[in-house]
Amino acid sequence: MLSLLYQEGPSTKGIFRRSGSAKTFKELKEKLDSGTEVDLACESIFVTASLFKDFLRNIPGSILSSQLCDKWVSVLDQGNNEEKIKSIQRLIEQLPRANVVLLRYIFGVLHGIEMRSEENQMNAFNLAICIAPSLLWPPVSSTPDIEGEFIKKISSLVQFLIENCCRIFGNEITSLFGEI
């Protein structure tokens, strides 16, 4: 999924914003969940993007770890960008290795999409609004007002992560997929 999103996302207007066919999404999800081989290259990139967000939402405790939720939310309240980046790197070090590897690929894809935002209309802000709720959620449910505030904070954090991903994850993030 990430490879396809890396290839097609930068040239796809509204990637992660538009949904694919709900029927196709449901059928593909059932096939993937049952272990059936699926060729996503033959499907709409919007369905693939929806499947990927669904996959992220189903990671127990979220990829950024709900246990670290308060720390993630408070990162942007810290001093200058350098201090924020160091705090983010310390939080990333507390995540399981598999989460860190996946995050690097996710932000490699998001960076590639953002670099062509004039073409796809998905700048860091738009990408963050679409993907942030799939990356982190609070450990306990709350009122709609509190949840709305939380989503705004997490979206700002994800926007910062996208805009600074090379400094956070290293410049090799731009070449994780090699020459596809």
Automatic annotation (TrEMBL):
It comes from the Eukaryota. The keyword Repressor does not apply. InterPro entries: ARHGAP20-like_RhoGAP, Rho_GTPase_activation_prot, RhoGAP_dom. GO terms for biological process: regulation of Rho protein signal transduction; signal transduction. Signal peptide: none annotated. GO terms for molecular function: GTPase activator activity. Keywords: GTPase activation, Phosphoprotein. PROSITE patterns: RHOGAP. Residues 1-169 form the Rho-GAP domain. PANTHER family: RHO GTPASE-ACTIVATING PROTEIN 20, T-CELL ACTIVATION RHO GTPASE ACTIVATING PROTEIN-RELATED. This is RHG20 protein. It comes from Campylorhamphus procurvoides. The lineage of its organism: Eukaryota, Metazoa, Chordata, Craniata, Vertebrata. The gene is Arhgap20_1.
